[in-house]
Specification:
The chain has three helices and 16 strands. By secondary structure, the chain is mostly beta strands. The chain has two domains: about 1-105, Immunoglobulin-like (Sandwich), CATH 2.60.40; about 115-250, Sandwich (Immunoglobulin-like), CATH 2.60.40.
Length: about 250
């Protein structure tokens, strides 16, 4: 891990690529090394957005159907005053376009993670990530919940399933005043959200552990596109996002 020590901060960054069957997961990670201080981060392109408690870390995988690795220099926003720095990471070639748009990081554009990449074979994978989010954005320090999650795609004859598993726990047990029941997850894609609601997953989270399987029809021709599981707090404010690919019908 590369140690980052701007004035008043101490955190580390790293990134890696992991191959799967017809899929390639690119992950980026940030670890907070400073005792006694919670660290806010927003690593824009690899989508690592979290409030990280001391000596903990947060990482997210993004899955592509094509192996096309590139060294990317992207904007990382950190700290309560939202300081900005450029940090290199192992990314996908598609990230270079977004990196060029970032410029000096002063005017970040909202990133749309929905590019279609045609798939020659079913992308079979399960990949894990970790993040911390508040169940109440108005009281972040006392309601942080650590999520360890797993996403993936699994094929079954003429259908396939999006798999989403998680295990959660209070990030700071002694001062925790939040509730897992204050969180609700909704997919950003209308197609995925419809399947999500059909199997009864649209309500608040019930437990600190969940295992979800979302069945979908397998198109004859498809492209791998990325949607997000958006996590909302008790007031309906989006407090976390998990990139999660699915298969879109290829109309070409």
């Amino acid at each position: 891990m590369a140690r980052q020590t701007p004035p008043g901060y101490d955190f580390s960054t790293t990134s890696w690529m992991r191959p799967f069957q017809n899929a390639f997961a690119y992950s980026a990670c940030i670890q907070n090394n400073k005792p006694g201080y919670e660290l806010f981060v927003n690593w824009h392109i690899p989508e690592v957005v979290a409030n990280i408690v001391p000596f903990d870390s947060s990482f997210k995988p993004r899955v592509f159907s094509v192996h096309n690795t590139a060294d990317v220099n992207g904007c990382l926003i950190y700290g309560n005053t939202r300081e900005v720095m450029k940090v290199e990471f192992i990314g996908h070639h598609d990230d270079l376009v977004e990196s060029g748009k970032e410029g000096d990081c002063a005017d970040l554009r909202a990133q749309q993670s929905a590019s279609l990449v045609q798939s020659d074979a079913f992308p079979d994978f399960m990949v894990d990530g970790r993040m911390t989010i508040p169940s109440n954005h108005a009281d972040v320090a006392n309601t942080l919940i650590r999520f360890v999650y797993e996403i993936g795609l699994r094929q079954d004859n003429h259908t396939y399933a999006m798999v989403f598993n998680y295990a959660a726990a209070p990030a700071t047990a002694d001062s925790f005043k939040g509730s897992i029941n204050d969180l609700t997850i909704r997919p950003s894609s209308d197609v995925v959200n419809g399947a999500w609601e059909k199997v009864g997953l649209s309500g608040p989270l019930k437990d600190f552990e969940g295992h979800f399987t979302i069945p979908l029809s397998l198109p004859k021709q498809y492209s791998l596109t990325q949607q997000e599981y958006v996590i909302y707090d008790k007031e309906g404010t989006a407090v976390g996002r998990i990139p999660a690919p699915f298969l879109a019908i290829d109309k070409q």
